[in-house]
Amino acid sequence: MIQIANLHKTFAGRPALKGVSFEVRRGEIFGLLGHNGAGKSTTFGILLGQVYPNEGEAFIDGVSVQKDRASALRKVGAIFETPGFYDYLSGWKNLEILASYSGIVSGRELEEAVQIVGLEKRIHDRVKTYSHGMRQRLALAQALVPAPEAVLLDEPTEGLDPEGIHEMRELIKRLNHDRGLTVMLSSHLLSEVQQLCDRVVILHQGSKMFEGRWTELDDERKRFRLGIDDWERAVALGITIAVQPDIIELGPNDDVSDVVKRLVNAGVKVRAVEPLRPTLESLYLDLIREHKADT
Amino acid sequence: MLFFHQLGGELAKLFARKRTYIGFAAFMALEILILLIFQIPKVQRGWQRTIERAGYGFDSYFSGTTLAFQMVIWTAFILGGLYIALVSGDIVAKEVEEGTMRMTLCRPVSRVRLLLLKYCTCVIYTMSLVLFIGTSALAVATLKEGVGGFFAIQPLAGVFQMYDTGEGVLRYLFAMPFLGLSMLSVASLGFMLSCCNMKPAAATICTLSYFLADMIFRGIPYFEDIKAWFITTHTEAWYHMLRTPIPVEKMVQDYAYLAGINATLVIVGVVIFQSRDFKS
After folding, report:
1. Does the N-terminal or the C-terminal CB of chain A have fewer CB atoms within 10 Å?
2. What are the pLDDT digits (tens) for B223-250?
3. Residue B28 belongs to a domain
4. Would you call B108 and A83 a contact, using CB atoms and an 8 Å cutoff?
5. Which of residues 47-106 of A touch B (CB under 8 A)?
6. Has residue A292 been placed in a domain?
7. Is the same domain home to A228 and A180?
């Protein structure tokens, strides 16, 4: 559905994207993960034709955004971290005006979008009276008209309270599940991406560090917290310590029972073995560490 | 059809702003103030001398049309330029600053079309503002002084003409759209600057500064030979409607020059905007 091909972008000589490529499949929830300045917003900007790449191209449903922006954007809706609205107008008027740039949109379509985001009661109030959460919901509503096939969400939960984050997350899931919408979202909140996304791309300083299901990494990196009395001897036995001194990492073909056996045979007392399911955070930090080590 | 639908949205945005209403109210207030100044006996005596020296009766020519013309000159000069520069300077830059431009640019609308819509909004605003100034000044002044002959005087532009009631009102009313066309140059410069990467206030200030400088330099005798190069030389073309006979050729020449300037400014603005990256 969405394809990013070898994107390069520099701002005032500073590289923001360095040859980033990835693909978002139809119907999936795809996450773009990275620190501030990693290149997430630049990628979104290029996808929406708001930023011109120095090299490379972005495609939406096979149409190049750089060559035919209007056709490419016909199938997507988008929201930003801090969506801008005409605060002195009502939410409804904002929707009408923004939707008019996509063509003639019926009132029924607008009503449906408002219903989906749950803003029916306040939609005719001025936007300046809205809370941040309501603004985000209004932003999502405008992204849903006229009926997109994909939505691009740049930091959709930024600045929301925990309840707002939960609501937004459920809304995104629902849109994906019920309407089959392809969702591409960026975030620096690892838990959000972990809970929502099928696949992720991790960006760091404009470069892609990882693309795929995060569980793929999970399978490759088996980690255990060991409670033992002599770490020096364990290291001498060739056991690899990962991240923290009490956590070991095994290769895909290693078995933890073999490790325990070796330790016990060497006279090391093993008090506890706790399997650790890697979080996206730990994976992310590992990747950055590896990236730094490589460079 | 879609274009007009979108233009309706742009106009709704503009005319829903409090500032727009306050602007119209400010013009009314200024017009009333100018009208009050014309009620001061000393000022009236000055007018009486001028009209009578020309061989006409003060009571016949110190009329609603005569005063409305003076009110328009001063209102357009003091507030008209300011408000048009303010609106045109804001039209793109303010949306970029507030983030609404990025929301709009998520839509399948080309940047050129978007700017065309915004420029049309500037044109409509300028014309409606000038027509409002003209008609409200005529209404207020006629209410106070009644109908009568039209003494059109503007020494700086070399206008000194007397008209009967009917022709005077017609000349006055027909001059207004031309004043609007002249003011479009202010809107075009403001619009062009608004397309650049600058704050809305900067676009407004630069526009006003340019026109002020243009007017000052044009008045300096040293620049007499190149007077035709100054924009404000041509923006005065609306006064031609008050001359007898109307110098049609000169008017066409002046407005063709202004149209060229306006088109150039708009194209430069579009090119600049087209090349910009928009990112938070």
Report:
1. C
2. 988 988 999 999 999 999 988 888 999 9
3. yes
4. no
5. 48-52, 69-74, 76-78, 80-86, 88-89, 93, 96-98, 100-104
6. no
7. no
Can you tell me the ipTM of this complex? 0.84
For chain B, give the percent of residues with pLDDT over 70: 100
For B93-226, where are the alpha helices, taking DSSP H only? 93-98, 100-104, 111-145, 165-195, 200-219
Q: Are strands A2-11 and A55-60 parallel, antiparallel or unpaired?
A: antiparallel
Q: Flag if B114 and A49 touch (Cβ within 8 Å).
A: no
- What are the average pLDDT values for consecutive 10-residue runs of chain A, which has 295 residues? 91 90 92 86 92 93 91 89 90 94 89 90 93 89 89 86 85 88 87 84 87 69 78 78 73 79 86 75 69 68
| B8 close to A80: Cβ distance less than 8 angstroms | no
How many domains is chain A built from? 2
Among residues A176, A194, A216, the one where a domain terminates is A216
Is B280 a domain residue? no
Of A225, A216, A231, A238, give the one whose Cα is nearest residue A283. A216
A242: containing domain? 219-277
Confirm whether A193 is domain-assigned: yes
User: Which candidate from B5, B109, B277 shows the least CB-CB separation from A104?
Assistant: B5
Contacts of B132 (CB under 8 A, 6+ apart): B24, B27
Which residues in chain A are contacts of B9 at CB distance < 8 A? 96-97, 100
